[in-house]
Fold Glycoside hydrolase family 43 protein.
Amino acid sequence: MASAINPIIPGFAPDPSVQRIGDTFFLVNSTFHLFPGLPIYASKDLVNWTLIGNAINRQSQLSLRLSDTKLHPQEDGTVMLATGGLFAPTIRHDTRSGKTYIINTNVVHPEDNGEDIPQNFIVETDDIWSDNWSDPVYFEFLGIDPSIFWDDDGKAYICGSRGPGPMTTISLFEADLSTGEKLSEEKTVWKGTGGIYPEGPHIYKKDGLYYLLISEGGTFKEHMITIARSESIWGPYEGHEKNPILTASGTDNYVHCTGHCDIFQDSDGRWWGACLAMRMRGSRFHMGRESFLVSGNWDGEWPILDTVEVSSSHKFKTDVVKATRSGLDWLYIRDANLSDHKIEGSTIRLTPSKKDLAQWQEPVSFVGKRQRKLEGSASVSVAVPKAGSVRAGLVNYKDEHRYARIWYDNSSKSVCFEVVNNAKKINRQDQEQVADDIEELRLLIEYTEEKLVFQYEEEQGVTKTLGIVDTEELSNADFVGPVIGVFATSNDESTQDIAFTKFEIDQ
């Protein structure tokens, strides 16, 4: 078994955690402000991955309304974009009970701009293939990135990054996973090696010793993985003298920002790590944080992880990531009004929302899919509305601060283009008139690693370019990645559904 293709989950796929159950590997990612949340992928060979479900797949499970993106200016003049919502999950399987658990944090941004509220919770299932996950069981923990560890005696422990940052610490306590009740006092077990934001902890036990693997240095260019060990689960933990065991910091590697790792064994006993990383071509890294596989070994006293590399083999795959059934990969923004979204095959009908993509307080009529490939295209045909002040189009979206889109504006009878990045103070627009009697408009986005090209067809076969976006314009230090989808908004009381047909995206 070997990985011929990296990233293993391309596109918007940060903070991977992996659990092997029998002969199958299961991987879960963060989703922040998008619903459904916490996608679960399955693979038997660590190469071909299938989306089998989402652990947060019912809006009744929790609310993502207060998961806006905050702008944090940095000392170097750049801006970090921090999105709330579903942070780094961990997936673990209990062989005793047969249950599979995902433990996670929903970070709530209070409307009064107070301190972030981490709502930590556990969901479980008796059958990971069923896509039937429990309602969240909440537990008290003032931090993020919780992880589960069972000791040999069956006791369950939760470790996490206790905040606020940047000098967080790693805490540990025994817990009842069925109720969330703490069964012990919470104890700080490690402060890391000195890097900022010690987080993303996982505990492993090997040869009678407890190993604590964490991330440090923040989630951008100084991201790194460090490890410590102890004879007792409660510590003291001694850091490895060769820390960090994984990082791209200080290099000019194409695959950069490597970190937030979960290590595991295959059925042959070989060791692997699943980590996040970013493909960075200079100042262009529009795809954001993706899931990569790194080989390693544990032949000595400490685990060793190899350099994370990328493969171009994705270009030869028709489907980079498959899904077990249609509809699993659709994404909505926060607490969307799902009744305003009707999807049948490649036809989508949206009831226009009163609010647009540039805000987070109210729902927006939008549905899309992750951009999986560096090079590809997306397109859709829009049935031109005949009444109301409606805007309906195609967008490459990250959050309320960053998107690039092309749409038909019924009030001006024109096709419009816009690129917005508030973190870089970018707001550029253009528009062109189209015929008053047009019935349908074809909208297209062609994309490469360097640029996004926004086009439209008023007449079949006659393609016009309205806007070009350098991917640097949408590249930031952030948490999320691009999602390509359709949207419909209105400035009046229009309730007529907008029909989008032949929605296609290279996946």
